Amino acid sequence: GHIKLSDFGLCTGLKKAHRTEFYRDIQSMRPQDFTANPVDSKRRAETWKRNRRALAYSTVGTPDYIAPEVFKQCGYNNKADWWSLGVIMYEMLIGYPPFCADNPQETFRKVMNYRETFVFPPEVPISNVAKDLILKFCTDADRRLGSLDEIRHHSFFMGVDWDHIRDRPAAYQPRIKSIDDTSNFDEFPDVDLKLPSPAKDNEVQVHDWLFINYTYKRFDGLTAKPKLKTSAPSTN
């Protein structure tokens, strides 16, 4: 089978939106009142999926997963990664990240004012222990969980056999019918997809159409049939 790799944008890079200067003009601005016009979780999830696909091909990027101290340029350590983990955990349980917005600037304002903007939607069921773990990830750096032992001993992971976790069978084993089976991937019927350029020499690579917008595809080594060498005709 295959996996699709997606960049979560968990670290800063050289892109314009990953530099603090990009947000300098809006750091002093107060966030909007996000609770005045609440949006239900289904609409937020749909908006996030649509924007995420667009951002994948954008030069702007997204600050959704970056810890506040990274933007402040006041120094940070590996605890910034635990913030990112909390955001990813929130997205996996809720359906979208906690600071999603229509543009990176608005997301930045939400991250920098997370005490007011970080909320759990009441219509999405989530356990109290899961909430507690996420909130201990997404908090000030000096209060954030900072070691593997602290994380492993959290009540959310009660009953997990960490010593033999790699020996346990996978919780879900997808059934793959063929090399180009994409039935286990999410569908985005309302998104305009970028179609690939026509194949050279009139060869239509059907499996490429199933992985549109994913630029790293290594099918040739798996599907190509060995070419038979033809000997030159004898002149005798």
From TrEMBL:
InterPro entries registered for this protein in UniProt: AGC-kinase_C, Kinase-like_dom_sf, Pkinase_C, Prot_kinase_dom, Rho-assoc_Ser/Thr_Kinase
UniProt-listed GO biological process terms: cytoskeleton organization
Recorded GO MF terms: ATP binding; protein serine/threonine kinase activity
Keywords: ATP-binding, Kinase, Nucleotide-binding, Phosphoprotein, Serine/threonine-protein kinase, Transferase
Record's catalysed reaction(s): L-threonyl-[protein] + ATP = O-phospho-L-threonyl-[protein] + ADP + H(+); L-seryl-[protein] + ATP = O-phospho-L-seryl-[protein] + ADP + H(+)
PANTHER family found in the cross-reference section: CHROMOSOME UNDETERMINED SCAFFOLD_135, WHOLE GENOME SHOTGUN SEQUENCE, MYOTONIC DYSTROPHY S/T KINASE-RELATED
Record field: transmembrane: none
Listed name of the protein: non-specific serine/threonine protein kinase
